[in-house]
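hey can u check if this looks right to u? its 440 residues, i copy pasted from the old doc so theres a chance i mangled smth
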Amino acid sequence: MPSVNLSSDNLPSTNLPSTHRWWIALAGFCMQMSLGSAYAWSVFRIPLVKEFGWSISQVSFTFSITWLFLGFSGALGGLWLNRSGPRVVGMVAGLMWGGGVFLASFSAYKLWWLYVTYGVIGGIGLGMGFVVPVAVLVKWFPDRRGLITGIAVGGFGAGALVAAPVAGRLMQSLGVLPTLMCLGVGYALVAVGSGYFMQNPPEGWRPAGWTPSAAQVSQRCDRDYSLREALRTWQWWAICALLSINTIAGISVVSQAAPIFQELGKVSAVTAATFVGVISVGNGLGRVFWSWISDVTSRKAAFFAMYLIQAVIFWNFHSISSPVILVVASFIILCCYGGAYGITPAFAADYFGPRHVGPIFGLMLLPWAFPAAFGPLLFAYLRQSTGGYNQALYLIAGVLSVALILPVLVTPPRQHKAAKETAVAAGALFEAVPEVDGEA
């Protein structure tokens, strides 16, 4: 059967009801909320340090391991998705994430077990699961590519909104390890159940009556790229850099959010846990908001705006002492942080086509994994070695300021103009040759 170019303007429509894809979107959102509960890790940091005598850096390293394996398994999940389908990958990923958190409840005085369960097993589940709703929904919503990827990963950003306060309350009554046990069961039930509903649209599907606008065409590639072809373009690496730099900024704050609120804002541990839940709304909201902005303007313009806003805040973050202003500043940072996750899958689909967006975007999480994992470690190290957050904040602000040039430079990959003209001329010449004795 010949392949269908999903970036073409002449795709056939099907008789599927338009509401069908929104139910799949809802399932994808719920799955991402379960996975995104990993962002609530900072509420466990102080209880684990106090109960088992581990250092701040040792406990923070769990979060880094989780994000490192998220990046590794994101690439694996994207490749496996093309072979076995999104349902299988989604359900296995949900089971690994929930199972990893559940098994972490047996890590009393065994730091290595915490690393293996929550970090390695849970991280692999997170990475494989994260790419599933993204890869599925970008095919169901070619007309709202930025918005739907924002909604898909918005659940991931909003996961801590529920998990952080729930975990805080459970730890007060049950303790830290029984809380991990309860949460692990809950995460698995939601993620596996939602993963069951993940399915791709029929080959060549598009919404009835929809055609891309001129602006959408100008911002998109001229064909579908395979994973190997995408890796040979500089644009793939540029998008990786855009995502990674933005991640360093946001994830450093996410990983230390509760301690930051307690140290700079002088609030209690329970209040700090509540604040973590509040700013996580920004993480989820930003994924939808900035994705919508990227549909209205462009992916490039949205990234430039996010970098600029964050740079200004990080240059001034150290001088904030008011808890309210601290929450507002952190909320805005997390809006921008989440925005990159909403924009990047759409960016990948625009520049390389939606057919192979699963492995193409999934593999982007591999180079992303290193700054995502070691950014929080560096942030925690600078905090512990200097006694404050100033140096870490200035470092991030400087990187963001320099990186403002990246979204200006990146453009869609195109077939070389001369090669296209040669191919067209050769085709016209071939058609013009007269037939002789039945042969051309």
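The chain has one domain: 20-200+217-414.
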